[in-house]
Design brief:
Order of helices and strands: HHHHHHHHHHHHHH
Radius of gyration: 20 Å
Strand content: under 5%
Largest sheet: none
Structural class: mainly alpha
Distance between the termini: 20 Å
């Protein structure tokens, strides 16, 4: 499976106190997110919402909508965004409008309606550019990476990367790893495995510099996946076996590591090992 977007960095430790205050809300929103745990993120956003009003509250609510979209609860995602739209006026901060467009577009994309989402991402990008909201412009550009038109996806990923490389904001620097990963996924889908390998190597280096252990493991998975597709089976197997040990030590089993180990052992004509890993993959799939 091509992991198009890696999980973002873990949020600050549970129980930490967060304070949102107007102009700093965008940075605080990043701190409140744990993209791997949308329900927990929702709880933090709702706690923050208790002390916010006006534009800051609207911005937080767009992120609550996103937590629903990530859980495929599109009815609640859209109703939350409808409520935001109803309270938006000509005096609302442009950043709220950008966030609204992004989340409405993401909700459409997650429900399989990318073509309907495109105009929203385009509007979000143009408004973010006009308002010098660099991080949101990067976000909007990178969303085009979900296009089934692979040339379009790569073109927009390149736009996102240029913006990320031109900024020294910490979040922009972190974006570089995700975008490089997306570029690798696109090149793999186009059949350009050497180019994919270069992008995945870049993503790995970026995550090793600034990422979490989980992000580093996922980056290594991408590197190994391409090696398998290139026929470098022994190299790929060595990486996936190491990832198996690391994920078990971290108590974060990953069905896709098992999937790759099953595929590698099949290619290496080791049917018993392949069956063992296929069963491990299926056992994780069966868990709620």
């Amino acid at each position: 499976m091509a992991r198009s977007v890696l999980c973002a960095a873990r949020a600050l430790a549970a129980g930490a106190i967060f304070t949102l205050s107007g102009v700093s809300v965008a940075a605080d929103i990043d701190a409140l997110w744990d993209y791997a745990k949308p329900a927990e993120s929702e709880a933090r956003f709702r706690e923050a919402l208790k002390t916010e009003t006006g534009d800051a509250a609207l911005e937080i609510e767009t992120q609550i909508a996103r937590t629903f979209s990530m859980r495929r609860d599109f009815v609640r995602a859209n109703s939350t965004l409808d409520a935001v739209a109803a309270r938006t006026s000509g005096n609302t901060a442009p950043r709220v409008r950008i966030r609204y467009l992004l989340e409405r577009g993401r909700t459409l994309n997650s429900s399989g309606q990318f073509e309907k989402a495109k105009p929203l991402f385009s509007d979000a990008f143009q408004l973010a550019q006009r308002e010098n909201e660099v991080l949101l412009a990067i976000d909007a550009a990178h969303m085009f990476g979900f296009s089934k038109n692979l040339d379009e996806a790569m073109s927009w990923n390149q736009v996102a990367m240029r913006l990320a490389l031109a900024s020294e904001l910490p979040r922009a620097i972190r974006w570089r790893a995700s975008i490089a990963n997306n570029m690798g996924s696109t090149e793999r889908d186009r059949g350009n495995l050497d180019a994919a390998a270069r992008h995945f190597d870049a993503a790995l280096k970026a995550h090793q510099a600034n990422g979490t252990p989980l992000q580093v493991r996922m980056a290594w998975w991408q590197v190994a996946n391409v090696k398998r597709l290139q026929g470098k089976l022994d190299d790929a197997l060595a990486i996936q076996l190491r990832l198996e040990q690391e994920m078990l030590a971290a108590k974060e089993p990953d069905e896709y590591v098992y999937e790759e180990l099953a595929a590698l052992n099949t290619a290496l004509k080791r049917p018993d090992e392949a069956a063992k890993y296929a069963e491990k993959q299926n056992s994780l799939k069966r868990k709620p």
